[in-house]
Amino acid sequence: MAHRKTKGGATVSFRRYLFSTNHRVIGVQYLVLALVSVTIGTLLSLLMRIHLVWPDYIVPFHGPILPEDYLALVTIHGTIMLFFVLTTAPQSGFGNLILPSQIGARRMAFPVANAISFWLTATALLILLSSTFVPGGSAISGWTAYPPFSAIASAGPGQGFGMDMWLASIAVFAIAGTIGAINTLVTIIKLRCEGMTWDRIPLTVWGWFTAALLSVIAFSVLLAALLLLFCDRHAGTSFFVPTGDLVNGVIHAAGHPGNGSPLLWLHLFWFFGHPEVYIAILPGMGLTSMLLANFSRRRVFAYRMMIFTTLLIGFLGILLWGHHMFVAGLNPYAASAFAVSTMAIAIPASAKVLSWLVTVWRSRPRYTTAMLFSLGFVSLFITGGLTGPVLAQPILDEYLHNTFFVVAHFHLIMAMAGIFGLFAATYYWFPLMSGRFMSERLGRLHFWTTIVGAYATFLPMHLTGLMGEPRHYAQLIGVPNAAGHLLAGTLPLNRFITWSAIFLATAQLLFFANLIHSLYRGKIAPPNPWQATTLEWHPALHPNAPFETSDGRIVVYRQPCEYLATAGEELILPQWRSDGIPNIKPE
Amino acid sequence: MPTTITPTSTEPKPRRHLEDHDHGSGRRPPTDKRTGGGGDNDNWNDRPNGRRGPRERLVRYRMGIFFALASDLMFFVAIVSTFFVSQNTGHFDAYNNYVNEWSPTLIPPILWLNTVVLILSSITMETARRRMFHEVDVMDEWLGLGKPITRAAIPWVAATVVLGIVFLIGQWIAWTQLAVQHVFFLSNPSSHFFYLITGVHGIHLILGIFGLVAALIGLYASHSLETRQIMVDCASWYWHSMGLFWLFLFTLLVFFQ
Ligand SMILES: [Cu+2]
C-alpha cells in the first residue's frame, strides 16, 4: 500500500506519523529509536575493543582515547544498549506493534499516554547522547553509576555535568518505562477479545506482561535512588558517601555529614537492575516458545507450565539482586540467601529450555531464518545461562567478579540472546509490518555469520576472565609488575576477540541490507505467511486489511499453537475460526 | 516506501458508535452490569471489540491509576528502606569509637493537625466520588434533567482542594518551625529524611491538587458523564493513596525515629 499522496501531503503525513497515537506507529517509532541506539552502541563497543588491543590507535576527529574516554565509552555503551535497545525494542517496540493484535485488541489501553511514553524515551536518549558534548564529558561510572565517585561532582572528569545528564536521562527513561508498562498491563488485562482467557494468551504476551509487572515494581525504586544520588551530588547530603571518603586527595566528610553507604546504592540500584535483565529477556523467551512451536508444527510442550515459569522467573528475578554485591561487603548470611534464590532461578529457566527442546525434538522443523534465530536464542540462552549458577555462588564470584568472565556471561545471555530474540521477531513479523518477506538467503547468511561472530566474540571472554582480565580497564599494556604480565598474557586472545567483534559488527550490514532491500523489493507475503495460529495474523487485524472496515467480531476458540497431523495431512488450527471453517490447510 | 507499515489512515476513529448504544452524550446510566474486560466470563453478545459496556472506560482508567500508584508505593518503600538503613549505620572515628550521627528529628506538633486535615480531605473526596455514582442522580442526568451529579460533587471536590492547600501550608509551617529550631535539611541524617519525605509527599500532593483542579474543570466543562466520573474517580483514588501514604510516613516519622 502506498502513501496517500494528497496536496501538501508530505507535511500532513509527517506530522501524523510523528505524533501519532496509533500503537503500530508508536511501535515502529520505538524500533527505529532502538535501531539508531544499537548502531551507536555497537560502534562505541568497537572503539573500546580496538583501544583495548591497539591503544595507540588515534580516533579520527577525536584523537587518542584517554582512560576517561574509555570509561565514558563503557558507560554510554552499557546505558544505551541496556535501556534504549534491550528494554526498548522488545518491550516497547514489538510490544506496541504486536501485543494488541495478539490479544485481539484494536489498540492500547491509553493511546495518548503511549505517545507520551515514546517521546519521553526519545528525550531521554537525546539527553544521554548530548552529555558527550558538555564540559568534562559524559558520565564515566558505568551504567550502574556506582558511588562514591558518582555522588561527588568534583571527583574527576565525567562526574560533573555529564553525570547529572546521565541521571536526568535515566530518570526520564524510568518514568517513560513505567507509563509504558502500565499501558501494557491494562491492555492485557482489559482489552482481550472474547474467548482470550488467561491460559489462551500467547506466551509472548505473558513475557510482555511479566516484564511490565517488573517495570512497574522496579523502575520507581531506581527513580528514588536517582533522587537520593542527586541530593548527594547537589544538596550536600551523604546517603551514599562514607564518612571521611578520600577522593582525589580531598576528604569528603566536611560537606557531607552522616554515614553514607555505597552499598545502599547497590541495594537500590540492583533491586531495579536485576529485574531489568528479565525485562530485556522475557519477551524473547515468550517469542521463542511460539516460534519453535509454529515452525515445528507442534504444540508448546507444557503450556501452562510455561506460563507459570515465566511468572516464577519474574518473581524470583525481584528477589535476587544481592548477587551483584557478594564482593561488596555483604553480610555472608545475606549472601547465602541471595545465592540460593539466584540458583533457584535455574529451575524455571531449565524447565523452559526443556520445553523448547521437547517441542522441537523429533519434529520436522522448517528452518526459516526466524526459526534459526529462535534456535540461536535457545543455544545462547543455554551457554550464557550455564555460567549463571557459577556466578551465583559467592565463593566463585569472589574470584570472577568484575572480570571478563562476568562480561562474557551477561553478553551471551542478555545481549546476544536478547538480540537474537529481536532478530527472530524482525524476520518473523516483517511480513506483518510491510506485507513482504525478508530475503531468506540473506537472512540465513546473516544468521550464520552472527552466531559464529557471537560465539567467537564472547566465548573467549570467559577465558580472559579466568586469566584475570578485569572489566573497565582502559589498557592491558603498560601496567607494571606481575599484574601487567598477567594482563599482557591475555593480549593474543583479546586480539582475536576484537577481530571477532569487528566481524560480528560487519555481519550486521547484511541485516541492514536485507531490511532495506526487502522493504522495497521483498517477496510479497500472503496474509498468514507462516501459517501461524496467533491472532496478529487474523485477517481482520492484519495491517494490510483496511482498519476501518474490519469491525467484525474476533473470537478466540483455542490455545495458540494447536496443530493436527492426521495420516500425513497437516492441519493448522488458528486461535480464531476463519470463515466458519476451523481449519486451514498449509500451502 | 513501497509499502506501508501502518494502516492507510492514522486518523482517530470516532470514539463512540451508535451500535454501541452510546451516542456520546454520556447519558446512559453507568449501572450496566455487563462490564469488565478480558476474555473470561463476559457477556460479549452485543459488544464485539473495543468498548464493552459503559463502565469499561472507567474501570480501565481506574486500573491504570492503581498500577501507577503501586509503582509510586515502591518509590516510597525505597525511600523508607533508605531511612532505616541510614538510621542504623554508623562509622568509626579517629579514636576508633563507633559513631552514629542519627539524632531523631522532633516532629512539630502541627503535623498532627495536618494529618487530621488530610484525613478530612479524604472524606470530602470520597463524598464527591460517591456523588458521581449516585444512582438516582445518574438517572436524572440520563433523562436530561440537568446535571445534579455535577452540582452535588463540585463543592466536595472544591473542599478537597482547599483542605489539600491547607495541608500543604501546614507542612510549610512545620518546616519553618523546624528551621527556627535550627533543624535544616543538612543538619542530620534524620533531618535529611524528614525534609525529603515531607517534600516528596508534598510534591505528590501538589500533583494531586492539579489533578483535582483538572477534575473540577472537567466537571464544569465536560458533557460526558462518563468522563466526569472518570476524572473524579481517578483523582480520588490518587488522593486517598496520598492520604494513606502520609499516614504511613507520619507513623514512621513519629514513632520510628
Ligand atoms: Cu543479576
Automatic annotation (TrEMBL), chain B:
Q: Where is the composition biased (Polar residues)?
A: 1-11
Residue ranges, annotated region (Disordered): 1-53
Q: Give the matching CDD domains.
A: Heme_Cu_Oxidase_III_like (cd00386)
Kindly name one Pfam family recorded for this protein: COX3
SUPFAM superfamilies assigned to the protein according to its UniProt record, in alphabetical order: Cytochrome c oxidase subunit III-like
GO-annotated molecular function = cytochrome-c oxidase activity
Record keywords, A-Z: Membrane, Transmembrane, Transmembrane helix
Gene Ontology BP annotations: aerobic electron transport chain
Segments crossing the lipid bilayer: 65-86, 106-125, 153-173, 193-217, 237-256
Q: Which Gene3D superfamilies does this entry report, sorted A to Z?
A: Cytochrome c oxidase, subunit III, four-helix bundle
Q: Where in the cell is it found?
A: Cell membrane; Membrane
Q: Which residues form the signal peptide?
A: none
Q: Which GO terms describe its cellular component?
A: plasma membrane
Membrane topology, record value: Multi-pass membrane protein
Provide ranges: composition bias, Basic and acidic residues: 17-35, 44-53
Q: Where is the Heme-copper oxidase subunit III family profile domain?
A: 62-257
Similarity comment text for this entry: Belongs to the cytochrome c oxidase subunit 3 family.
Report what the protein is called: Heme-copper oxidase subunit III family profile domain-containing protein
Q: Which organism is it from?
A: Edaphobacter dinghuensis
